[in-house]
Amino acid sequence: MTDENSEIADGIPTPDGASHIIDTEYEIGQDNFEGSVGPFGFDIHNPVFGISGLAIVAFVFYTLALPEQAGSVFTWLFSSVTQGFDWFFIGAANIFVLFCLALIVTPLGNVRLGGTSATPDYTYVGWFAMLFAAGMGIGLMFYGVSEPMSHFSSSLGGVTMGEDGVRTDWAPLGGAAGNEAEAARLGMAATIFHWGLHPWAIYAVVALSLSLFSYNKGLPLTFRSAFYPLLGERVWGWPGHVIDILAVFATLFGLATSLGLGATQANAGLNELFGIPVNATTEVILISAITAIALVSVLRGLDGGVKILSEINMGLAFVLLLFVLLVGPTVYLLTFFADSLLAYLQYLPALANPIGREDTNFVQGWTSFYWAWWISWSPFVGMFIARVSRGRTVREFIVCVLLIPSMVCVLWMSVFGGTALHQVINDGYTAAQEASLELKLFKMLDVLPLTSITSLIGIVLVIVFFVTSSDSGSLVIDTITAGGKVDAPVPQRAFWCIFEGAVAIVLLLSAGGLQSLQSMVISTGLPFTVVLLVMCVAVWRGLVNERKHT
Amino acid sequence: MFQKIVVPVDLTHADKLNNTLQIVADLAMSHGAEVCYVGVTATTPTAAAHSPEEYAAKLTEFATAQGQKGFATSAKALTAPDPAVDTDKKLLTALKDIGADLVVMQTHAPNAADYIWSGHGASIAAHADASVFLVRD
Predict the structure, then answer these.
(1) Can you give the pLDDT at residue A330?
(2) Is this prediction's ipTM beyond 0.90?
(3) Which residues constitute the signal peptide according to the record (chain B) (predicted)?
(4) What count of Cα atoms within 13 Å lies in the side-chain half-sphere of residue B55?
């Protein structure tokens, strides 16, 4: 008998070193139901697959059958969550940032995900491209110009009070009435606040938790695993089922909503560029095309599909960023980038303050909305990041997931938002300021050279960003509904990819469907905030335990 | 005629491999060949093992047990972040690395799905340089 593991580079060269496996009698896949539908095999978790699938179908039918009632219920739910719990969202997000920063500076940052000698599965470029594309790629396209512009305009307008003594303006903090330079700084600080450390800290907590309990503790790659230190063996029963079902729900609806929003923006861009009509037919064709490309990607797997698309995306985004930086007001943008960063640091304590705020519209309509949105997206992005992050130390992981993407977001927002602001402040060109949300990017590009090419790249980026969200999302849902198995039959992931596209189309065609969906996604953010806070405790205990035993 | 027989195995379903393993034992003894058992596992915990290292140890143990039948054995564990899709690719690379001249593997009975997604056996038979012996379930 010889062991070839040590001889062949492609195998496992050396043991991955010590890690502290949790001793549980649960075997991955023990609750799974294996069978086949016609020629297609399946391997699904009972009851997570069935209940989440049925719940989604029921939701879609309810929204279609009773659109008005559904609309009012979800609008109420949306406003209740963002208005009643704004302090909770803001406070929790602060805790996530502090938690992540603490992990960087404490010895717990030395723990390696996957054991003391584990090596990373992906290079920095591939890894970074994937986590970034899944994390917030599309949002950067959608909000890169529009958000800095919105905050700038509201800040410039200053504070206005209603008869009841409550502020009616949407300016962040105290605004900057009549002061264009300061309004731009405050606008950028508020934008970076929503796209920088806080959202990435939310993703980092979820991803770290899943990685730790899966790679180091030997538990299935599902959400329930993070609760093992608190719930023990009960986590394999109904409490765990509920956690995983909620994660599936949030992921699928989050993706379906994004597919709808992406189709809207791509349609607007195609209309601007080629005069293609803006209507439901075009949007349905776009969603179908995005789903078809995502299907090919998901069938080619992580290496052959998702990673390649993510890298193409990063390359294209970088080209567009560089182009706008070079042909735009370069010196102004570089100064603006540094100044925006300083403005962010200057305004951060005030923006992150959860209590006693007077800028209620901004806090509830923007910050609270964003935090709920990021948190409801965290199951999907967190699990995807976890899936590709084995072999990194906790410190490396947090730095790369928290600080680097935050800096890229600052740069992106500074260049795109800065160019648009420069057009308004210095050139008096206000088309981007006045355009609808989905058109602002294209209006900003309108006055730069090579408009047709850059707008086309913009549209391609919007589409490919959605493809990368759709394919990685399908992988994530498939893993959760297969009880943490990543080698379930391939037709299952194809099913989720198609199902997700179908849900987006059906809801796009119904009156107010996507709006209801968005409200639903935001509403799932509330219970998940509690879940994430508990995860922080579990991660800390898990890491302390890991240090002690390895 | 054959010096190195490679047998891809799924440790999760090792109990269903009896026919294949017996054929492999007969071939190895009649040809005086060494048998290398190859397994592809995810980097995440699976039904077969909590970690890739545990999987490798179990595969080595499995190969040792097979060697009790009277032929030389070895084991090679491979990892893939997405084994549902990457298994065939990993196996084909391993066959070259090991220098296989015969591959014996179990496959399911063909069905309509094979027109869209071919099974591992069909894929290996189509692309491997070595001879391939597929054993139906």
Answers:
(1) 94
(2) no
(3) none
(4) 29
